[in-house]
Amino acid sequence: MSLWSRISNVFRTERLHRDIDEELQSHIAEALREGRDPEEARRAFGSVLSHRESSRDVRLLPWLDSLCADAVFGWRQLLKRKVTSAAAILSLALAIGSCSAAFRLMDALLWRPLPVAAPERLYAISRELAGREGKDSTSDRCAYPMFRQMRRAVKDQADLIAVSTSGRIDITYGSDEETEKAYQQYVSGWIFQSFGIRAAVGRLLTENDDLTPRAHPYAVLSFEYWTRRFGADPAVVGRTFRAGNEFYQIVGVAEGPFTGTEPGIVTDIFVPTMMMKNNAIVRSDYEWFRTFVHLKPGVPLALVQEKLRPPFRAFLEERAAASAGVPEQEKNAYLNQALVLNSAAAGVSGLQQGYGKALLVLGVLVLLVLLISCANVANLMTAQAMARHREMALRVAIGAGRGRLVQLVVMECLWLALFAAVFGACFASWAAPVVAGMISTPDNPVRLILPADWRVVGFGAALALTCTLLFGLYPAFRASAVKPAFALRGGSAQLRPRMMQMLIASQVAFCVLVLFGAGLFLVTSERLTHQQTGFSQERLLTVETVTSQPQPYMVWNQVAAQLRTVPGVEAVALCEWPLMTGGVWDGLISVNKAPPSPVASYFLRVDPGWRKLMHIPLLAGRDFREDDFLSGAAVVNQAFARQYFGGRDPVGNSFDVVAVEGLRVPYRIVGLIGNTRYRDMREAMQPAAYFPFSGNYGRASFILRTSSQNPMTMATALRLAVQRARAGFRVSNLRTQTALVEQHLVRERLLSLLALFFGLVALVLAGVGLYGVLDYSVIQRRRELGIRIAIGAHSVDIAQCVIQDVFRAVAGGALLGLALGIISARFVEALLFEVKPTDLGALAPPAIIISAVALFAALPAIIRAVRIDPMAMLRSD
């Protein structure tokens, strides 16, 4: 009989039994037709049941048949205990769903290979620089002249590809009134050929499009953007759009799911690197793109790395020789950079660097919650298996082997895991996009690709199987070890105290570890949130504005005057960019013609009304005046005075801003103001110097103090006012100053919120587990407790008898959890702020909380124990 027939017979047993019975009856009927006596024929034929079983085993697969039978029995057991099964499924579903959601996020951001040819041969160049105070720094940005030298060195072994970060820019396919946002990325013209990407329509960029600066204003759209924005219209090829003052012609659409090299950002438009502005292609001091190395087949990584080092070293030496104004210490550190090639199979993005460790921490938290849930279900299944010890004894007595008993219990556990995995998948499909949305901001939307493909399904299946093994094997082996004679005589099976205590201690340890981490992240979030910014952000609106041609300060000031007439606007100031946007202009400072200090200062150009509008206190001297714009005046903060003047009053003194080439620009300090945060909430208040808003600018920001508590309600009126004030002026972005500050707290708030959620889940699961173990313990020891009560034990003695072993395990688990927390804290140290794992405030709350929960979980068991009626219990025995 064929294998397929034997498999199919497993699922049509009734028909198989009929066929076997008919065949057996036909043999007896044939003997009767030959004239044999019916009784003699039946005796000669033998046992019908034995023939049926042997024939049945030949016509199907016995192991598959027993597996199906145990699956049916396990399903009936779940239906028999609906409430208990539902509770186990829900707790497991939450844990499995959280693990699946964390996996989907980590896979999308950190692990999923780019949809390019041979992603395993893709690497990214980074530079490791030894920093001050022993703190090393890493940069993955390069200058284009260095890129050219390195590309020539390895052209036969690898393709070097220049790729900028994907920037959200203003573009228009029509008039200025039709401006929209799109993500644009500058790429080497040969990127599509190297990555094996073909054109869906039109053509893609080529190397000839990326040879001459600003000669080929061509653009390629991603397939996703083409479908979303143009409805996959082939006529898009040949259309033009404007980005700033540049016009680009669309030459084609990239085929497939490729949307750039930055996970978390879906690039819409690709343009040649040669279209980069501000002489970025020839400047050796402008590091603005990442360099990818795509190895050719059969070429070892070590060979390419060795060939890249000589041009890299030559470029550093050339740059160091031209850096006359840089301190010798800084120059030596620059020359000692190390070139490193890291795998870029999953792409490279700022989101990976900013959220990679946070997602790994999230993964650890949900894994701990899963382990707590598995320990709970293991306790439940063990207790149920012990309650069925007589049933198991009967199965052994009639010939069931230990393997069959293990299979019986494991199949029931597998049903629990499968249902939990299904519900968990539904939870993960909702939770993963929600968490991704939590790290997204209106100005920097995050778009992670979260498909439910074979990777996600395979992880879910593996997780369900792992959970089955985690919480199913121990109950199965305990149940299969039943002694038939003892059980059938009326003996009762009990949990082993040592195993019970180990399960309790492990649950408590995992719970305390989750609570410990949650406490660290909550404190970090709270302290960062309450960091002083040095300025008032209430009712502030930032209006980032661009012009068709650079304009002098007088013209910008005329637009500011027009904005002051808008109803609801109390004051208007002008600056290059708002504080806390992430924009940076810094440089070295020299006082009294001395060598420049190794500590750089931040710079910003502002108008005379900026300080007053920002509510920054004036500590000495004066503010800017209109006649300061050509006099080289500067206003500095306290950190500047402390760093470069030893804390003395700097008003009236002078300093030079030293450029890399040694050029010095002198400034005279006219005022001292309070410290403000420039770009980050984590760094200490840094030195900052403010200069008059002078020169011609094609982009700047108006800062408005409004009378409305919700400044964004004025967005439309302000856009129209800017356009009416001066031809060629257009609003690029409107954001509240509060939103700019809060965008620096997104990661910390996300971690604290999720850690708190999983801490509460872990606490509930641990409490339920403790309650279940204690309740089972009271039931198993009711005779002993009854005897103690009968001979005069007090309620306190009974309570102590019930909880002493369990609370010893709780105490041990709490200490173990705190120890693990202190050890593991060093791995998340970069995510913490002004909190130490060894602080009493970090150690005490988890221990106190778990003790309180353990006591609360023990109360029902204690009450049940002290209410045992010894006479009724002894009569029942």
TrEMBL record:
<keyword id="KW-0812">Transmembrane</keyword>
<feature type="transmembrane region" description="Helical">
    <location>
        <begin position="358"/>
        <end position="382"/>
    </location>
</feature>
<dbReference type="Pfam" id="PF02687">
    <property type="entry name" value="FtsX"/>
</dbReference>
<dbReference type="Pfam" id="PF12704">
    <property type="entry name" value="MacB_PCD"/>
</dbReference>
<dbReference type="InterPro" id="IPR025857">
    <property type="entry name" value="MacB_PCD"/>
</dbReference>
<keyword id="KW-1133">Transmembrane helix</keyword>
<feature type="domain" description="ABC3 transporter permease C-terminal">
    <location>
        <begin position="757"/>
        <end position="863"/>
    </location>
</feature>
<feature type="domain" description="MacB-like periplasmic core">
    <location>
        <begin position="509"/>
        <end position="709"/>
    </location>
</feature>
<feature type="transmembrane region" description="Helical">
    <location>
        <begin position="847"/>
        <end position="866"/>
    </location>
</feature>
<feature type="transmembrane region" description="Helical">
    <location>
        <begin position="414"/>
        <end position="436"/>
    </location>
</feature>
<feature type="transmembrane region" description="Helical">
    <location>
        <begin position="86"/>
        <end position="106"/>
    </location>
</feature>
<dbReference type="InterPro" id="IPR003838">
    <property type="entry name" value="ABC3_permease_C"/>
</dbReference>
<feature type="domain" description="ABC3 transporter permease C-terminal">
    <location>
        <begin position="364"/>
        <end position="481"/>
    </location>
</feature>
<dbReference type="InterPro" id="IPR050250">
    <property type="entry name" value="Macrolide_Exporter_MacB"/>
</dbReference>
<comment type="similarity">
    <text>Belongs to the ABC-4 integral membrane protein family.</text>
</comment>
<keyword id="KW-0472">Membrane</keyword>
<keyword id="KW-1003">Cell membrane</keyword>
<dbReference type="GO" id="GO:0005886">
    <property type="term" value="C:plasma membrane"/>
</dbReference>
<feature type="domain" description="MacB-like periplasmic core">
    <location>
        <begin position="85"/>
        <end position="309"/>
    </location>
</feature>
<feature type="transmembrane region" description="Helical">
    <location>
        <begin position="502"/>
        <end position="523"/>
    </location>
</feature>
<feature type="transmembrane region" description="Helical">
    <location>
        <begin position="456"/>
        <end position="477"/>
    </location>
</feature>
<dbReference type="InterPro" id="IPR017800">
    <property type="entry name" value="ADOP"/>
</dbReference>
<protein>
    <submittedName>
        <fullName>ABC transporter permease</fullName>
    </submittedName>
</protein>
<feature type="transmembrane region" description="Helical">
    <location>
        <begin position="806"/>
        <end position="827"/>
    </location>
</feature>
<feature type="transmembrane region" description="Helical">
    <location>
        <begin position="750"/>
        <end position="774"/>
    </location>
</feature>
<dbReference type="GO" id="GO:0022857">
    <property type="term" value="F:transmembrane transporter activity"/>
</dbReference>
